[in-house]
Design a protein that fits this description.
- By secondary structure, this protein is mostly helical.
- The longest helix is centred in the C-terminal third of the chain and has 46 residues.
- The chain is rod-shaped and about 105 Å long.
- The N and C termini lie far apart (91 Å).
């Protein structure tokens, strides 16, 4: 919590807990040197290539999955059409010739 002039944000404490930054800004306690935003920014810059490649990998997997789903649907529809034609031929073959 920030209240007094020598207080540090709790997020700067290496042993983070509520109120750990009180009175530690001017004392010899262990505090992180960088603020959280700068540390996160540096981490993203350092690992940006890996994160980008992981994102591209996920997109590729999604596209392959979509293409496979489309092909499976296409094959299934063809099979259904073939089965309907077989059933129609079968029903015509065994149809009662006396019915109108």
């Amino acid at each position: 919590m920030l209240g007094k002039r020598n207080d540090a944000p709790d997020s700067c404490c290496e042993d983070f807990r509520s109120g750990c930054g009180e009175g530690r800004a001017t004392s010899g306690f262990k505090l992180y040197e960088q603020d959280c935003y700068r540390a996160l920014y540096d981490a993203v810059l350092d690992r940006g290539m890996i994160m980008g490649l992981l994102g591209v990998g996920v997109v590729v997997v999604e596209l392959v999955t979509m293409l496979l789903a489309y092909k499976i649907r296409e094959i299934t529809n063809e099979e259904v059409k073939k089965e309907k034609k077989r059933q129609e031929r079968k029903s015509k073959r065994y149809a009662n010739p006396y019915e109108t």
